[in-house]
Amino acid sequence: MRMGKQKRRMQSLQPEGEAHMIAQKRLRRFAMPPKSSRLLSEGMRCAAGVSNMREKEAAAWTISTSLDATVRRMPRRNYAKSNYPLYFTFAALAFYVVFVVGPSIVGLFYSFTDWTQYTLGAPAWNGLDNFKRIFNMSSLQASQYWISAVNTVFFAFYSTVLKTGIGFLLALALSEKTPGKMVHRTILFIPSILSMLIIGILFKSILHPSTGILNRFLGAIGLQSLQMQWLADFNIALPTVIAVDCWRGIGYIMVILLAGLTTIPSDYYEAANLDGASYWQKVRFVTVPLMMRTIGITLVLNLIYGLRVFEVIYVLTNGGPVDATSSLYTKVYWAIGQGEYGVSTALSSMLFVLMVAVGYFTVKWMTRGEAES
Amino acid sequence: METHTALVQGRKKPRIDKGMFAVVGKNLLVILVSLLIVIPLVLLLLNSVKDQAQSAVMGLDWPKAFHIENYLTVIQLGHVTTSFFNSLIYSCVPIVPIVVITSMAAFVFARNRTKLNNVLYFFIVLGITLPTNWMTLMKLVQVTHLYNTRAALCLLYIAGGISFNTFLFFGFMNSIPKELDEAAIIDGCSPLSMFFRVIFPLLTPVIATVAVLSFMGLWNDFINPLYFTNTTRLWPMTLAVFQFFGRQIGQFNKWNLVSADIVLTSLPVVVAYIISQRYIVAGMTMGSVKG
After folding, report:
1. pTM value?
2. What is the CB neighbour count within 10 angstroms for residue B239?
3. Is the pLDDT at A325 greater than 80, yes or no?
């Protein structure tokens, strides 16, 4: 605003000509209002004293030369640069680079070395050996890594779909008049504020095969066939872990989607009503399309969370029984315990490369609206 | 009819009028899920005041007598005091630096949209999705002689909070008018005094959000202490509970004490949640919900 006004004033005061245009450009480069107007009047005063040249050119020339002199005296900074200095960001960048990005980048190199507890001081390059060990299906240890990768994807996919699906239904239900709406919202959100470790311990009790309340409840209502070794059965353990993760995460997703729902103007629903749309038609053709951004970002962030899963598995099963629930990050932890630092780093690095690729587009999407405003 | 009343009353909330199926299904679903979530929590509270015999099988039966002294026993047995102060340090100390440095960075990114600043902002926000390389990070912590120190955890927590909180502050900056900066500058403020005297006080709602979310996240964390400490002396409450659980359940099946310990550990976050529900929801929904 201010800059624009300044420019207009300059145009009305100054004669035309190429030299003048250059002068104006220079002015604009450090167009902090009070200073530049002072300069301008100086220039005009000088111009008035010159009479043996053609009037317009003379004025422009004087302005530009006197400006040159002033520019040399003034610090060469512009308004934004001097008042929003880059050093404000240095502390954040330093912490971020040193502790977040740095280790991952260095890890990319270490993943091509034979880094173990024995070669701690000077690991040597060993090419793709770490990756060969991870992907080589013939050795027992390698197939464990492979299983953990498959488990991670399985976990990420199903926990994301279930949490978002159920969370969306709950959000739909709670966005309208429902008895005890606020009570439900509060209850559903409580698990997301508790530590996963605490939830894990709690569910170890609940899911205990003989004393756990779940199996005793199933027995009491005559569903003995559904009693399971929830965390010890090779086939059931991973779905159980996913269920516990959902137990914790659904409320969180619900709150996010609920906030998204309230941003939809009611006009759309009224228009749909006039067209005689049914409930599910309105959900399908009004709610979902208008919530695409919210749902999309929620899905991707959940997927990323799922690919990094560690806490819930560490507490509930620690990867067992026999790697049935191990994820990439429990394997990273396990490999460090075994002294296999190179393999651990290689696993992390694979995840890092994947996340940078996925994250690039996600963050572009998340920050898209902001950049324009 | 419904449409008309909605129009007349000028409702802003989305209203979907619903058939019989939707009404019943909706209520059933909500009640069922709420029950599923409440039962484990009630289970925990009930068992924390039972005696050992009754709590050996964690059940929903009402306590025969209320043993509040369980909580005192836990405080004596479970390293609760040390770990409580550790947790307090880990979850409070990093908050001040996080708030100061991320708000400063977000301010410059939001106000001065040069190419460089846009790239740097994107680079920082990308951190929301990045995984941690624990091995090299451990190496870094060891090389700098920070292994097994509280300082290491605090530094790592500050670093871990940079991306998301810069993102939060950035989103809020646009709602503070630029004219305020200009007024401050014309009055002769340096950039630092402009930011801390004029802008920073106006950020209070986001600062509250960042502080509460950070507090809860840091209080609940146990991965960092798991990787970067190896003595119980430095453990936060979460890890101490886990160790206590291992000891008490493995040998004695004292679920009453474990439940009491869990309740104690969760108390601070639950209190924080009750006090500042509004800020928490505001922070959590930002980013994915545009607004």
Report:
1. 0.80
2. 24
3. yes
